[in-house]
Amino acid sequence: MTAPYRLRDGIGDWQAMSAFLAMILCAAALGLFPSVVDDYGALTLAYVAFFTVLLLVNMNTTDRRLREVSGS
Predict the structure, then answer these.
(1) 8 A C-beta contact, residue 8 and residue 65
(2) Distance (Å, rounded) from C-alpha 34 to C-alpha 45?
(3) Which spans are transmembrane here (predicted)?
C-alpha cells in the first residue's frame, strides 16, 4: 500500500496522527535552525543532533503505526 493511502487510513488514529505531528514539528525545528542560531558552536551541534535523532525516531514510529493501522 502506498503512503497516501496509509496516511488516509491513519487520520482517525490518535497515535498515528500524534507521531505524524511530532515528525512535522521536528522537521520545522530543523528548518528554522539557520534563523535561530547566529554562531556555530557546540550548542549548535547539539541542537542539530537532537532534532535529527528526534526526527528519525518519529519518522520510524509514524511509519510503523501507519502500517499497523492500514494493515488492519
Answers:
(1) no
(2) 12
(3) 12-34, 40-57
